[in-house]
Amino acid sequence: MFVFVCARCGARLTVPLSQVALPAHAHQKYGNGIQLPVLMASGTFAVEPEPWGPPWRRWEEIRPDEAAARGVYAPVYALSDGAPGAIVIAPGDASGTVLIPGRHAGGYCCGLDGADGPNVACAECSLPVASRIDDCSLWQAMWLAPNAVRRLPVDGLGTAPLPWSELMAEDKGTPPFEPITTWGSRRAAGHWSNYWWTWSPQWEAAVGRALAHLLVASEGQPVIVPGGLVGQVFQRALNALLPAGPQVRCVVLAGPGLPAPGGDDSILLVPSHPQTGTTWAPADPVPYLVPLPFGVWRWLAFPAPDLPVPTSGVLPAGVLRDDFDPPAPRPRQGFRADPEVFRHTLVRLPSVRSPWLREILENLTHHMRAGLF
């Protein structure tokens, strides 16, 4: 485990933290005026390996060879010229920091968005050290500036990554549906106003990233995914984005606790480790593995059943039951992958240089209007 300290004066800025993989939805912007929760679990941190945050340069200012050297192979609106290695933590895990007067109010809608650069300083020496993010439609987080903090190990505290077997025993997966509230929602009479059930933003981000990998793995051929929830979130987009034809590639869910996959030409949907970010791989190598965040993969591979609801009769007087609830409401709209997570992933895959994939990128706005994203 580690603590982060101020690079100038050495003051401690965080509680002890253990490193986990950067979430697929770390930079997601979801909807308009939506109240999103905290990005990171308490006691954890993740590192963004790429440059992120201001200053930004427009694509027209960047040479193609420079972009390719940074792992970007197709046009984007802009690339960050910030320092790589930003560290994201839960805001509640920060200590010894203060908001910078005059900087915390710039460029926001309902809260802080970090668009003006660091808005949090070390309380001891006033060095700008972080950007606090809590604006609407953004995941709440504290992003530590990599050139303003240092990481120090904590003696006597350490955690080894869990093996897949322990993850399977402990983790219950990420539900595909969740309640969403707008920024101005208020709790009244035991319920939330401006509150509705929708597809999980985490699922939309995870599928957006996986869909980019699936398109590359398809090599432009039709793809069939398993039925059920997997089909709900992938098949409609694949049918629309890929041509029809006689040669069909099959997608198979694979990973810990599932039978060994068969067929050398299958595309495998597999989990990535939530702590290390490494992708699960079968004993026999296959041409293409499509990673999904472990919680999303776990729910697809082993969906939790809806809890039963009594259909008739009443309980005896004085008897209270707390072992069941009605099933979670289902969203009214069909599933849509996150378009910006999809774009961010696809432009970083070298295969995007293929004309048919570039065409998908160029028509992304049209696909959004068609309800695919």
Describe the structure.
The protein is 20% helix and 23% strand. By secondary structure, the protein is of the alpha+beta class. It is globular. The two termini are 39 Å apart. 31% of the residues are buried.
Taking the sheet with the most strands, its summary is: 7 strands, mixed
Range of strand content: 15-25%
Q: Tell me the series of helices and strands, N- to C-terminal.
A: EEEEEHEEEEEEEHEEEEHEHEEEHHHH
Could you report the average pLDDT, rounded to the nearest whole number?
Answer: 88
What helical percentage do the residues reach? Answer: 10-25%
Beta strand count: 20
What is the structural class? Answer: alpha+beta
* Spatial separation of the terminal alpha carbons: 39 Å
Radius of gyration: 22 Å
Strand order of the largest sheet: 2-4-7-11-10-9-8
What overall geometry do the principal axes of the alpha carbons give?
globular
Low-confidence stretches: 307-311
Structure annotation, total helices = 8
List keywords for this structure.
single chain; 8 helices; seven-stranded mixed β-sheet; alpha+beta; 373 residues; four-stranded parallel β-sheet
List the helices and strands and how they pair.
Blueprint: E1 2-6, E2 18-19, E3 34-35, E4 44-51, E5 56-58, H1 64-69, E6 78-80, E7 84-89, E8 97-99, E9 120-122, E10 128-133, E11 141-144, E12 149-153, H2 164-170, E13 177-182, E14 187-188, E15 191-192, E16 195-199, H3 201-218, E17 223-224, H4 228-241, E18 249-253, E19 267-272, E20 288-293, H5 294-301, H6 339-346, H7 355-362, H8 364-369
Parallel strand pairs: 2-4, 17-18, 18-19, 19-20
Antiparallel strand pairs: 1-12, 3-13, 4-7, 5-6, 7-11, 8-9, 9-10, 10-11, 13-16, 14-15
Helix pairs in contact: 3-4, 3-6
